[in-house]
Amino acid sequence: CETAQQVAKFLIRERAVEQVDYPGLPDHPQHALATAQFGGRFGSIVTFRLSGGRAAADAFIAATDRIPFCPSLGEATTTLSHPESTSHRGLSPSQRELLGISGGTIRLSIGLESRDFVLDSLAEKLAGI
Questions:
Q1: Which pTM does this prediction carry?
Q2: Distances from the Cα of 31 to the Cαs of 43, 49, 101, 118, 125, in angstroms?
Q3: Is 87 in a helix, a strand, or coil?
Q4: Tens of pLDDT along 47-81?
């Protein structure tokens, strides 16, 4: 949870990132509820949207193997998923849009690696787009 919080804060500052969704961020619409329910531990999933859409997502995914693509979340290591092409591929574009899922949406499942490893790996991936 601590690494996920740091990842969310890191991603907010990145120019290639359009939006970050993580309940531990004060501007998240469910932050107050998450604080009450989770007691300051907001989970290991961080979702963000790249400003370059699907092309940026494809470049991000391909940029390095240090954070591998995984169609389902919940490994012991940090993985990423692309909801448009995996979990939500059966929905129409308008249905995905209502859910806030675009071609540039990436979901990270933060694993047990060190915070520095995860942040360095994300910086490397973002440099590749």
A1: 0.88
A2: 12, 19, 20, 24, 28
A3: coil
A4: 999 999 999 999 999 987 899 998 777 789 999 99
